[in-house]
Every structure is written in C-alpha cells, then in structure tokens.
C-alpha cells in the first residue's frame, strides 16, 4: 500500500469495541450500511504493513500509480448454463494476480455486500441493476461494461486492493465462491475494528473538518453534474457517428444498386447515347469507397465509446460512490450517535426520577448499569464518527487523485477525432478521381463538377 493507506491490524483497540445494544428500541442497521461483524481479539499478524511515516491521513498517490495497481478484464462467456433459468457468466481476469476465474452476477452482489460490511466508511461503487426477465443483448453488454468499471475501481482502491476478500474474488477458482467470501469477511470485524489508528483518528483530523467536508461535498457534486452532462454529449456524438456509418454504408449500397440495374432503356429515351451505361458502371464502383468510409466511421465511434464514454462513466461511478458515502455518513454514523445521546439523556432522567421516588435499590442499580453501558456505546459512536470523517477525508483525496483522468479523456477524444478525420479525408480524396466519368461533357470530355454557387446570380 502506498502513502496514507490505512494500516490494518487484526487486533481491535480496547476503546474501539463493538457497540453493545443500548436496548430493544435501537434502530436496525440500514440496508445500505451493513452492521459490522464483531470478532475475537487476535495477535497482530506479522504480514500486516507498518504504519506509514508522517501523517497517515494524507495520501501520496498519483493517477498512474492507481491505474498500475491492476487491470481487470470482464468478458462474457458465450455458453449459457442452467436447466430452467439461463444465466450469464463472466470471465474475470486480473493482471495483478495473473488469474482468470468465472463469475456470475450474484457473485458480484455478494462481493459488493462484503465490501460494504468490511468498509462501511469507504467509497464502494454501486453495481449495475439486475434484470430478472427479458435481458437483451444491449442490456447484457451495458451490464458487462458496468461490472468491469466496478471491479477496476475496487481493485485500484488503496484499502480494498490489500484486502483478502478482493484476492479471493479475483483468484479463487473453486466451487461456491459466495460462501467463501462470506466466511472470509465474517471472521473479522470491519475496518474500524481492525485499524490501529481508529481510536486516534480525531488526532489526525483538521480542526475545521466539518467545514472542509461540506465544501468538498459541494465541489464534488458540482463536478459530478458537469461530468454527467459531458458523458451525455459524448454518448450522443458516438450515436451520431454510428448513424453516420450506417448511412454511408446504405448510401454506397444504393449507388451499387443503381449501377447494377439491368432494366433496358428505350432507344428513343437515350438517343443512342451510352451516357447512362457509363454512369452505371461508375456508380457501381463507388460502393467500395463508401463501404470503406462506413467502416472507418464505425471504428471511430467504437474507439470513442471505449476511450471517452467509458472513462467518463468510470469517473461518474467513482463520484457517485462518494455521494453515496456522504449519505451513509450522515444517515448512519451521525444518526446513530444522535440516537444514542438521546437515549442516554432519557436514562439519566429515569435515574433522577427513581432517586426522587425512592425506588428499589435493585431497580436503581440496573438503571445505573444500563447508563454505564450506554456511555460506552456513545464513546464508541464518537470514535466511529471521527473514524468515518477520517476515511471521508482520504476518500476526498482519492477523488482528486482521479481528476487528471479528465486530460486522458480529452486527449483520447481529440486524438480520435484527428485520426478519424485524417483517415476519412484520405478516402474522400481517393474517391474524387473516380468521379471524373460522371462529369463527362457532351463530347465525352470530362468536365469538372460545378460548385453549389455556380449558376447563382451574384447579389
């Protein structure tokens, strides 16, 4: 792991114990923020990385270093398996682990759930939706692309890339990978439970962390909105390029159909002239060039879809995961902390009331015990709140590490346009000499084609 990546240890700090149940009225865990699993303390593993020097809050990563962590390919497996309900399988290959495994969509779902369980305070990209019935080829291809973006963002994320769950998902080739993932994730607690710095996260945070968080969140939301519009326009340009390729191909085919027409012409219409025959021969030959133009236009649209639209989608997926993380922070940790404080104040009032009313000593002792337990809950909630802000600060930095991807996207777009126009211009230029016979004069001598302005009276 590089720079400020988290230093994870199996043993949980004493102050970072899992929250005990305050009482039977506590809120159930939110669906988008799984409750962390509690594990027994263990001896530190010697294979864990040591704490990075300096402030561990700061990430010292570049975009090139992130992209070099791994390159994961996700390809469709042509065969469909299953006796009754057919399903799609994917071949997932990792450059880092030199592995190639077969995965179903539900395997990705379990992997996603385990990531949220182990890393509730990190950017976990969302999965594409699952369509139960009627999944056409277009939907399957779009989902394959989305799964590829998901797994590459995960494989390059600093904490995720060093976690055993990722290695298991990318390299385990045995049966029942879903149970293996669950067993692997449930044998330890979440990142808060295993991070050596969890109890001291507050010490590394700037004093104005809440203000910084609000500003960063607004900025990233604005960036998301702008990139969303850029992606939509890029998709429209690709769609137009695909339509242009199809139109060029049909245009050439129609020219070929004209040239291949065998309908005889009456002599009184042609006046014994061979002009139409020469024209037909020339038109028939032009279809080859138009087919080549269509091929180059289609190739350019495919290149821009892969190098421009997909990279924009990748960055949008990252930004969306940041927005989701901000919501989990506010609706999860902060909300639970406020509920715990409210419950604590109610217990204190009950204790005061019991003392005034001279209740049974056992009843008062039980209430005092519950108050102490609730104080421990509040203490752990506060630690989790600071650790969540700690992670948010790092995830914000990670988003900014990805920002130079903008120049990669623009560079790919400009290069594609230059190359595409250059190749098509050459075909158009090669096509022009073949038009000479189409502009033959009255005595068979070629005459240049007239420009659109010819024949118009100047005013």
Automatic annotation (TrEMBL):
The keyword Secreted does not apply. One of its GO terms (molecular function) is identical protein binding. GO terms for cellular component: cytosol; early endosome membrane; retromer complex. GO terms for biological process: early endosome to Golgi transport; intracellular protein transport. Residues 1-51, 440-459 are annotated as: Disordered. Keywords: Endosome, Lipid-binding, Membrane, Protein transport, Transport. This is Sorting nexin-8. It comes from Monodon monoceros. The lineage of its organism: Eukaryota, Metazoa, Chordata, Craniata, Vertebrata.
């Amino acid at each position: 792991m590089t720079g400020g990546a988290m230093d994870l240890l199996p043993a949980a700090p004493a102050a970072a114990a899992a929250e005990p149940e305050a009482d039977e009225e506590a809120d159930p865990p939110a669906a988008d923020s799984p409750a962390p699993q509690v594990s027994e303390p263990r001896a530190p593993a010697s294979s864990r990385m040591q704490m990075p020097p300096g402030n561990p809050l700061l990430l010292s990563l570049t975009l090139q270093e992130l992209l070099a962590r791994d390159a994961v390919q996700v390809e469709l497996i042509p065969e469909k398996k299953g006796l009754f309900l057919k399903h799609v399988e994917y071949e997932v290959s990792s450059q880092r682990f030199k592995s190639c495994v077969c995965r179903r969509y539900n395997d990705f779902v379990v992997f996603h759930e385990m990531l949220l369980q182990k890393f509730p305070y990190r950017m976990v990209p969302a999965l594409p939706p699952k369509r139960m019935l009627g999944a056409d080829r277009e939907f399957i291809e779009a989902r394959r692309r989305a799964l590829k973006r998901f797994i590459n963002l995960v494989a390059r994320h600093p904490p995720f890339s060093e976690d055993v769950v990722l290695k298991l998902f990318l390299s385990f080739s045995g049966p029942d990978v879903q149970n293996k993932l669950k067993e692997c994730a449930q044998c330890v607690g979440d990142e808060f439970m295993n991070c050596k710095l969890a109890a001291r996260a507050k010490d590394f945070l700037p004093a104005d962390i809440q203000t910084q968080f609000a500003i960063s969140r607004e900025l990233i939301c604005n960036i998301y909105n702008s990139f969303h519009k850029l992606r939509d326009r890029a998709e429209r340009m690709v769609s137009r390029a695909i339509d242009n390729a199809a139109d060029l191909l049909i245009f050439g085919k129609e020219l070929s159909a004209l040239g291949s027409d065998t309908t005889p012409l009456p002599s009184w219409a042609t006046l014994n002239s061979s002009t139409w025959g020469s024209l037909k021969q020339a038109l028939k030959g032009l279809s080859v060039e138009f087919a080549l133009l269509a091929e180059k236009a289609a190739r350019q649209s495919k290149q821009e879809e892969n190098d421009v639209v997909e990279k924009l989608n990748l960055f949008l997926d990252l930004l969306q995961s940041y927005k989701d993380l901000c919501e989990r922070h506010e609706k999860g940790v902060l909300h639970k902390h406020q509920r715990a404080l409210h419950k604590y104040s109610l217990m204190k009032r009950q204790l005061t009331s019991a003392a005034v009313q001279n209740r049974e000593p056992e009843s008062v002792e039980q209430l005092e015990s519950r108050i102490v337990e609730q104080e421990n809950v509040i203490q752990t909630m506060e630690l989790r709140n600071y650790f969540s802000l700690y992670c948010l600060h790092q995830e914000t930095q990670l988003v900014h590490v990805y920002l130079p991807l903008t120049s990669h996207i623009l560079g790919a777009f400009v290069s594609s346009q230059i190359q595409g126009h250059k190749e098509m211009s050459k075909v158009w230029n090669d096509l022009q000499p073949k038009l000479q016979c189409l502009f033959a004069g009255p005595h068979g001598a070629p005459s240049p084609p007239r420009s659109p302005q010819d024949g118009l009276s100047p005013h």
